[in-house]
Amino acid sequence: MKFFLYGDNLNPTQLKRRAPEHKFEMLATLPDHTIQFSRWSSQWRCGLANIVPSPGEKVWGAVFDVTDEDLKILDQFEEDVPPGAYRHVQVTVLTDAGEKILVTTYAATPVGKFKPKDHYLDWVVKGLKHWKLPEDCMAQWQTYRPRAD
Questions:
Q1: What interhelical angle do 118-130 and 135-142 show, nearest 10?
Q2: Geometric angle at alpha carbon 144, from 140 and 149, rounded to 5°
Q3: For position 84, what pLDDT does the model report?
Q4: Contact 54, 79 (CB under 8 A)
């Protein structure tokens, strides 16, 4: 199954644990969506990334081929969030070559607005760097850093 992953699932350590048989296909963007932190993570003690519609914006990620067994492990989210908090949705992503591809991804049922923490964002950025996502993607994730008021 072609699956679009974003956020902390791009971290190679986490990806290997949650989808050991994954195969990288390509970098891609999900148009007209943005990242929000609308689920709480008991593991990270902060907000977890989620995609939500947002005209004119885009979410960077990567398309992977995952097996049915990978999907079972991914869906468990290591018991970090309640079962069913994230669901599979069909989306059309754009490749670097401008192709549109129908894939599956995760979207959460929002339960509030939470802030991410630096340690969670550092984990995400490690994955972005590993897959060589562009600088504008890195810059976007840096804007989510908590600010001292």
A1: 170
A2: 135
A3: 78
A4: no
CB neighbour burial string for 109-148, b if at least 16 within 10 angstroms, e if fewer: eeeeebebbeebbebbbebbeebebeeebeebbeebeeee
Mean pLDDT by runs of 10 across the 149 residues of the chain is 96 95 97 95 92 97 97 79 86 95 94 95 97 96 85
Per-residue DSSP letter, 80: S
The model's pTM: 0.93
Query: Alpha helix locations (H) across 9-144?
Result: 12-18, 68-76, 118-130, 135-142
Supply the pLDDT for residue 79. Answer: 64
End-to-end CA distance of the chain: 44
